[in-house]
Design goal:
Length: 481
């Protein structure tokens, strides 16, 4: 049952002549006939509609919304559930809207553009509550909502490049469930500076001598500059000159990852000082970043998350010890240090550890930041236990990748801390780790959902835990009353 509601990759396409017979077999096995009407009872975590057949079998339906009546085509049958798409919409939901993007339904990027924005956000709040509920965890109140603009928000993107057998160059995002590229000339969620580059980049790729040597493109907008990073398998001097001319014509900075096995970053224009702002208690801080560093795609929502972290953890007593794990380049470390905490910031990527240290030094004048940047493998239980025993933190901040922080969560049960702020990009692994913590004695005091990727089923979450009996927990309970 754990996999219900999760998409699985499509198998390789088969020939059309064999497909109709196999679809017929699937339909017969599923018990869904061509004229059967299904009522959509809810949304799965990935944004698909959920219905049940007359025999009680669950069907996950692409493009269907709660309350709708649809006829479907089943494209995959499994023992416990089927996967289908809408063939005919008989009764539409009042929350169905016209998708703002012409590529919706083909491009694999956004999967909820047919649902009104307020309903998207209610769905995401409900997903967090449901996943925690499956672990026996009930929130005292619905999660707070941290949300920004509904379009023009994404400041970084990765675009696939592919040349077909006829020599046609494709640039865009992957089609849903496949490795096939959908050519994209415009994207409603990219910031305007990146959106404006899509057509000229496609034109340039078609003019290269060796477009097959380009693996993908990364686009990034910082506060000062726009950067295009080319993943290049082999050097081609003629194409280098074309890329440099493109950079001059469009006012962008250009770099490439060159090589097949261990690519190295090579700037083809002057290397810019890339900085992105994050809020601090006494004004914005500037974080230096480089291609390859992790950077939240939505600057506005990231700022809301940082402000929420500062608010939930306030007041930080002077010199209070904060252990920031999966710290990146200092997104939470530096604002917390500005608030007066002594921060030990730990990251696994050595390049980002170096950048974090540079960012702490660059923002220190006039603020007296106390930040120590360290590298450690945070998936290794001995390393995590050693960090907790050495740092003896008053507060732990976690911001792990999608895999979550199970080793850290288990260690925090063995070595409890007064307060723990967990920031997650995957609610399922967050719920798993929250179960370890709650069953180990922690209590959830605050919860929030951040709509980092609008029009998608992806959501970011924040949970504030406290360990009963700590002085800080008692103080917080008193101030709340």
């Amino acid at each position: 049952m754990a996999m219900l509601g999760k998409r699985r990759p499509m198998r390789a396409a088969t020939g059309v002549s064999g497909l109709h017979g196999r679809q017929g077999e699937r339909r017969e096995a599923s018990g869904v006939g061509e004229q059967d009407t299904l009522e959509i009872r809810g949304l799965a975590h990935d944004g698909r509609g959920v219905a049940r057949t007359a025999l009680g079998k669950t069907v996950f339906i692409e493009g269907a919304l709660p309350g709708e009546h649809v006829r479907v085509a089943v494209h995959r049958t499994r023992k416990r559930f089927d996967e289908a798409h809408v063939q005919e919409l008989l009764l539409a939901s009042p929350e169905r809207v016209v998708p703002p993007c012409p590529y919706f339904g083909r491009c694999g990027g956004c999967d909820l553009q047919h649902l009104a924005l307020p309903a998207q956000r209610r769905h995401k709040q409900a997903v967090l509550e449901e996943l925690l509920g499956r672990q026996g965890i009930a929130l005292a109140a619905s999660p707070e909502l941290l949300a920004g603009a509904g379009q023009d928000y994404r400041r970084r993107a990765r675009l696939g490049v592919k040349v077909n057998a006829d020599g046609d160059v494709h640039l865009g995002f992957r089609a849903r469930h496949t490795h096939r590229l959908i050519d994209i000339d415009a994207c409603t969620v990219l910031v305007p500076a990146l959106d404006a580059l899509l057509v000229p980049l496609h034109q340039l790729l078609a003019e290269l001598e060796a477009p097959r040597q380009v693996g993908h493109l990364e686009l990034l907008e910082s506060d000062q500059a726009v950067v295009v990073v080319v993943r290049q398998l082999r050097d081609n001097p003629g194409d280098v000159r074309r890329w440099q001319a493109f950079a001059r014509a469009h006012g962008v900075h250009l770099a490439r990852w060159l090589g097949r096995e261990a690519p190295e970053l090579d700037w083809l224009t002057a290397a810019p000082a890339l900085r992105c702002r994050v809020p601090g208690p006494d004004g914005d801080l500037a974080l230096g970043v480089a291609p390859g560093d992790f950077l939240q795609a939505n600057a506005e929502v990231n700022g809301l998350m940082v402000r929420t972290a500062l608010s939930w953890l306030a007041p930080l007593a002077a010199g209070e010890r904060v252990l920031d794990l999966f710290a990146g380049v200092g997104n939470f470390s530096l604002p917390l240090a500005t608030a007066g905490a002594r921060v030990t910031a730990v990251e696994g990527n050595p390049a980002m550890v170096a950048r974090l240290g540079e960012n702490a030094r660059a923002n220190a004048p006039g603020r007296g930041l106390d930040v120590v940047a360290r590298q450690a493998d945070l998936a290794a239980p001995p390393a995590v236990r050693a960090l907790l025993q050495e740092a003896v933190p008053d507060v732990v901040v976690l911001d792990p990748p999608r895999e979550g922080a199970e080793a850290v969560s288990r260690a925090l049960v063995e070595h409890p801390v007064p307060r723990l702020l967990y920031i997650s990009c995957d609610p399922a692994t967050l719920a798993r780790d929250a179960a370890h913590l709650v069953h180990g004695g922690y209590r959830i005091r605050r919860a929030a959902v951040a709509d980092m990727f609008v029009h998608t089923s992806h959501l970011e979450s924040m949970l504030l835990f406290e360990y009963p009996g700590s002085a800080r927990q008692a103080q917080g309970a008193s101030s709340d009353g």
